[in-house]
């Protein structure tokens, strides 16, 4: 995280030196700072920083993709003449255990196709998920475990 | 160049409003609160975000642009939290799932 701060500071100093705080110039400075940091990655130990940044970015891309897909599915379902719904709540055993990881997973689940997190059990082991199609809860559990939960663990551990 | 920007922003506006419309039709047609939250939290968020992005594309000063994009970020941060809280509160108060539901693993064993 401190390397991210250095990255921001370098981008800020680029903006200061070039005398323009426009968004584009700042973004360019940020890219330059990434380049500079990657030149000295052996010395400042930022090798992990770059692979982690890539994983956070891939989590972000997955998230936007799933959001678009989920909005599309809801639209198709709502507009179809006879809605064949099999809604239900299933329990999902959590593997992540830190608070912010659970929060993030719950939020991601809510914004993805057909699922909505309802509650976390008191011992933080089980997440209750409402699915709009709960005919196959095993497949839904597997999707979450191999999609978001794995990505979250990769990005933040 | 300007025409392209206008076209993109107009397309985003139309798609965004279609998603908002679909979200409200979903609120009318779906059977219970939990399934309705699906429509409101996904299609609704998507519609609002697309319209804000349309504004960001069309705006030619940084202030408007960054505020529109900040709006998108806050929508994405708050929509799941609010729908999650609504569903949790509804369940705690005792709104049952619609009769067509196939399972409920949250129901306490008794």
Question: Summarize this, please?
Answer:
The complex is a heterodimer of chains A (157) and B (110). By secondary structure, chain A is mainly alpha-helical. Chain A has helices at residues 2-18, 23-39, 41-44, 47-79, 99-110, 137-156; strands at residues 88-93, 115-120, 126-131.
What does this protein structure show overall?
- The complex is a heterodimer of chains A (157) and B (110).
- By secondary structure, chain A is mainly alpha-helical.
- Chain A is 66% helix and 11% strand.
- The longest helix of chain B has 32 residues, at 62-93.
- Chain A binds chain B through residues 22-23, 67-68, 70-71, 74-75, 77-79, 83, 85-91, 106-108, 110-111, 114, 116-119, 128, 130, 132, 134-135, 137, and chain B through 18-19, 22-23, 25-26, 29-32, 34-35, 37-39, 41-43, 45-47, 62, 65-66, 76-77, 79-81, 83-84, 87-88, 91, 97-98, 100-106.
- Chain A: Belongs to the CPA3 antiporters (TC 2.A.63) subunit E family.
- Chain A: It comes from Hoeflea halophila.
- Chain A: The chain crosses the membrane at residues 25-44, 56-79.
- Chain A: InterPro entries: Cation_antiport_E.
Based on CA inertia axes, which overall geometry of chain A fits?
elongated
> What gyration radius of chain A follows from the Cα positions, in whole Å?
20 Å
Low-pLDDT stretches of chain A are none
Distance between the termini of chain A: 13 Å
The number of helical runs of chain B is 3
Summing up helix and strand content along with how strands pair, one would put the structural category of chain A as mainly alpha
Largest sheet properties of chain B: none
Total discrete domains of chain B:
1
Mean pLDDT of chain A: 80
Q: Taking all residues together, what is the mean pLDDT of chain B?
A: 83
Q: How many E-type strands of chain B?
A: 1
Count the E strands of chain A. 3
Which strand order spans the largest sheet of chain A, edge to edge or round the barrel? Answer: 1-3-2
Strand content of chain B: under 5%
What fraction of the residues of chain A are assigned to beta strands by DSSP? 5-15%
């Amino acid at each position: 995280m401190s390397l991210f701060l250095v990255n921001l500071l370098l981008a800020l100093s680029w903006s200061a030196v070039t005398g323009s705080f426009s968004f584009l110039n700042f973004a360019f400075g940020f890219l330059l700072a990434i380049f500079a940091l990657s030149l000295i990655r052996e010395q400042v130990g930022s090798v992990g920083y770059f692979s982690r940044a890539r994983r956070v970015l891939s989590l972000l891309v997955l998230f936007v993709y799933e959001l678009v897909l989920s909005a599309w599915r809801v639209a198709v379902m709502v507009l179809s003449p006879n809605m064949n719904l099999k809604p239900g709540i299933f329990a999902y055993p959590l593997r992540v255990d830190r608070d912010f990881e659970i929060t993030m997973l719950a939020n991601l689940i809510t914004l993805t196709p057909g699922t909505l997190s309802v509650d976390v059990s008191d011992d933080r082991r089980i997440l209750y998920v409402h699915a709009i199609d709960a005919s196959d809860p095993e497949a839904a559990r597997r999707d979450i475990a191999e999609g978001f939960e794995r990505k979250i663990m990769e990005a933040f551990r | 160049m300007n025409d392209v920007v206008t076209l993109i922003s107009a397309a985003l506006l139309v798609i965004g409003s279609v998603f908002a419309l679909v979200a409200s039709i979903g609120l009318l047609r779906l059977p219970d609160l939990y399934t309705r939250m699906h429509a409101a939290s996904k299609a609704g968020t998507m519609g609002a975000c697309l319209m804000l992005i349309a504004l960001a594309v069309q705006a030619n000063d940084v202030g408007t642009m960054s505020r529109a994009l900040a709006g998108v970020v806050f929508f994405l941060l708050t929509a799941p939290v609010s729908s999650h809280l609504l569903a949790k509160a509804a369940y705690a108060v005792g709104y049952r799932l619609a009769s067509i539901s196939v399972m409920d693993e949250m129901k306490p064993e008794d």
